[in-house]
Amino acid sequence: MEKDGRFWPTDVDLRPRVTRFHVPRSPIGVSSDEYIPGSTTFEITESTYQIEDRLREQFPLYKIASWGRELLHLSGKQNEV
């Protein structure tokens, strides 16, 4: 299915998604989800391949167009040889 009734990704969809993980530091045996000074936050950003996979999954026309782009790229390499 196309996302939100759209058939093609916008520039917002093309941006990598960032996931933030908050890892609290707390005394042993104490579990807390609150922010504790000295805690650590990690950020994980999508790679180009992950973005491409997500767009292919959310936008069927993008999937077809990307296959066409790959075929053209491969045929161009064949012609260079």
3D structure, described in words:
The chain is an alpha+beta fold. It has one domain. It has helices at residues 11-14, 48-58, 60-80; strands at residues 18-23, 40-45. A two-stranded antiparallel sheet has the order 1-2. α2 (48-58) crosses α3. The two termini are 39 Å apart.
Brief sketch in words of this structure:
This protein is of the alpha+beta class. The protein contains three helices and two strands.
What secondary-structure arrangement, pairings included, does this model have?
Layout: H1 11-14, E1 18-23, E2 40-45, H2 48-58, H3 60-80
Antiparallel strand pairs: 1-2
Report strand %: 5-15%
Instruction: Kindly name the structural category.
Output: alpha+beta
Number of helices: 3
Shape: elongated
Task: Give me some keywords for this one.
15% strand, two-stranded antiparallel sheet, single chain, 3 helices, alpha+beta, 81 residues
